Amino acid sequence: MSGRRRIRVGVLFGGRSGEHEISLRSALTVIAAIDRRRYEVVPIGISRDGRWYLETDALRTLGAAAPRLAALKSSGTPISLLPYPDQHTLVTTAANGRPASARAAAARSILRGKLDVIFPVLHGSFGEDGTVQGLLELAGIPYVSAGVLGSAIGMDKDVQKRLLRDAGLPVVRYLAVRDIDYRDDPAAIRRRAARLGWPLFVKPNALGSSIGVSRVTSARALARALEEALRYDRKALIEAACEGRELECAVLGNERPAASMVGEIVVRGGHRFYSYESKYVDQQGAAIEIPAHLPARAVKRLRELAVAAFVTLELRGMARVDFLARPDLREIYISEVNTIPGFTAISMYPKLWEASGLPLGKLIDRLIALALEDQRARRRLKFTYQPQP
After folding, report:
1. Is the pTM above the cut of 0.85?
2. Domains defined for the chain, CATH in brackets
3. Which residue of 270, 275, 304, 380 sits 20 to 30 Å from the alpha carbon of 3, by its own alpha carbon?
4. Are 48 and 71 a contacting pair, CB within 8 Å?
């Protein structure tokens, strides 16, 4: 890289969602692994109340918070993004327009110039759902992962499942429940849910990391599970169970996406499913098997389904496709698609690509290249009408 300017990469982390703490763990992994010879990292933390901070000492800040699943406690410089198309810049919002911390000189240096690309390591609402993506579109900044539409679809599991089903891809039978409908007639919801059979899984419609998810085995427990899910969203999903195996496949690319090998989550320690506790709290709560022990025809089928889901949902960059399967593999369903999958030490997306021959540093390179490639392709489009001569 001698003589060449490093690419300025803004890494966004934290955010206002229930997955704030998981985002910090993912960001710690990404920032630690990124090649500093090729990239100048601009770490941007978003607090729980939505304020943006330039975190010049991000590894220390994240290293303190991430292992304890603590929220971001910023000591950085308050900043804002001015979204002038192609002339965007970060500016301080500290008193008198100058950074007020001891890191003022470093902050002023970083704030000079625009960003070449953004890597949003944000999970859940206000980060993975198209909101940040819309801001970055207005600013003309290339960014990693799905666009506004794909991100919104990826977060809304009900819409996601409808599109997958209409494309002929397999999803479990489910019921989408709006908060107002449940309040108006809870008995009707219970009757409709019972037709799906027991057990059922109840979850918020637009959230991840298994937050608010319950396994329900009776009508009595259903009300409590719905109340929990509707704490996080105005719509909940009630899904028929397909218990047996939880399989995952990573997808990477833009117009020509490719699928990784397939991995499996094996839940342990008395947990009934891959819950938040088994993922992030209980270190013995789950094990990852890569590659999954599957016949070749099943692996081929799962990889084809993963790419088909990626294309159907208008995604680009990256996604992790999760599957549910019966133990005998006679039934395989797409559970959900995640457009900004986890990058924590236990996360399947980077582990699947590493096992497929693409280690984390190279994976980050590829994701940034795909973001820049997509921006170049879209810049060839016309946004004003120009009659042909």
Report:
1. yes
2. 7-143 (3.40.50.20), 173-240 (3.30.1490.20), 245-377 (3.30.470.20)
3. 380
4. yes
